[in-house]
Structure formats: C-alpha cells, structure tokens
Amino acid sequence: MLVNAAGLDADRVAALAGHPSPPQIFPCRGDYFRLHTPGRYRGLIYPVRARGSAGLGVHLTLDLAGGLRLGPDVEYVATRDDFSPAPHKHAAFLAAAQALLGPLSPGQLSHDSCGIRPKLRGPAEAAERDFMIVEGPAGCVHLLGIESPGLTAALALAERVSARVGELLA
After folding, report:
1. What is the reported pLDDT for 166?
2. CB contact set of 88 (below 8 Å; sequence gap of 6+)
3. 16 has which bridge partners?
4. CA distances from 135 to 9, 112, 122, 126 (A)
5. Based on the domain organization, do 103 and 33 belong to the same domain?
6. Torsion angle in degrees (nearest 10) through CA of 90, 82, 135, 128
7. Could you say which of 81, 100, 119 is where a domain stops?
8. Which residue segment(s) compose the domain that 156 sits in?
9. H-type helices in 17-124, by residue range?
10. Is residue 16 located within the same domain as residue 98?
11. By three-state DSSP, how is residue 77 classified?
12. Which of 93, 102, 156, 162 could share a disulfide with 33, CB 3.0–4.6 Å?
C-alpha cells in the first residue's frame, strides 16, 4: 500500500506511482507580515471574503508566542520552493491591514514569513476546488490539494484513509 500525502508534490508522487492522470497542483504562495502593535489586539480578525477570491483575504492571526501576524495573501507562483522574503509586498499589506484594522503607520509592519499551499484551483478558474482523495493504480491512495480546510479535517481524513486502506488489504 502507498498512501501519498506529499503536499505540494502529491501530484508528482501520484504520477510516479503510476496514476494515469492525477489532478494538477498549482503552487500558491502566501506571505505574512508581522504587526508591531503589542497588546492592541487579542483575537483573530477576518475580512469578508471577496466573491471569487482564491483566498480568505489578509487577516489578523495570533502566533503561539502572542505576536500578531497579517496574512496570508494569495499569489500563484511557478515554483514550489521559493520561500525568500517579499518586502516588495509591504505597500499591499499595509493597505489590506488599514482596511481591516484602521490607521497604521508603515513602520508597524515587517515581512515575517511565507508558505506555499497546494491548490487544485488554477489561477484562471473562478470556482473553488476542494482537496481530493483519489485511488490508482491498485494499492495507492493519494491525498491531493490539501490546504487549510483539509488540515482542519486532518484526523477525519486520516480515519477515512485508514478505513479505506483496511478495506483494500482485506
């Protein structure tokens, strides 16, 4: 049995395992900026999602140390491994932060980090596409396009895949 949960490379692993036509993964970069206003915010703040948007929009999150971060944004990228800093996004993040939180000075934001998520929805597609569990060839189960909603459901997905593997081995 092969259970492929290779994230950004799950489509490539599926192809290497012999799946005839795995769904394509579109790498989507999301940057975060650190917000330097200690003690001002104590909870998450989300914008209303724009219809047809590829993401939720820049929102305020709290990290485990109690720090404040804004992000992620949505940027389809050609490479799956470029995690370099993106200070050129400062002005766009400042505008998004001000729309969400009110007046802020440029010095209150600095680039923090980024991640790249595996989207099944291509950059030109209007409709959202959720993650998928596909099989093939025999003995292979592939989890594709698992980003935030799938991570939230990770235990349920694990139970479902475990049950399916049990069925296949029976």
Report:
1. 92
2. none
3. none
4. 16, 38, 22, 26
5. yes
6. 20
7. 119
8. 2-25+125-169
9. 90-101
10. no
11. coil
12. 93
30 contacts 115 by C-beta, under 8 angstroms: yes
The answer to whether 140 and 169 have CB atoms below 8 angstroms apart is no
pLDDT at 36 over 80: yes
Confidence check: pLDDT of 150 > 90? no
State the Cα–Cα distance between residues 34 and 38, nearest whole angstrom. Answer: 11
The domain that contains 98 carries what CATH number?
A: 3.30.9.10
Instruction: Residue 42: count other Cβ atoms within 10 Å of its Cβ.
Output: 8
At 119, give phi and psi (nearest 5°): -95, 140
Give me the count of residues in the chain: 170
Average pLDDT for residues 24-31, to the nearest whole number?
Answer: 95
List phi, psi (to 5°) of 45: -135, 120
Nearest to 131 by CA among 112, 118, 140, 141: 118
Pair (34, 104) in one structural domain: yes
Q: Is 5 helix (H, G, I), strand (E, B) or coil?
A: coil
Q: What is the average pLDDT value for the chain, to the nearest integer?
A: 90
Give how many domains the chain has, as a whole number: 2
Tokens of 165: 């593997």
Strands 132-135 and 2-4, sheet pairing:
unpaired
pLDDT in tens, 66-80: 899 999 999 999 999
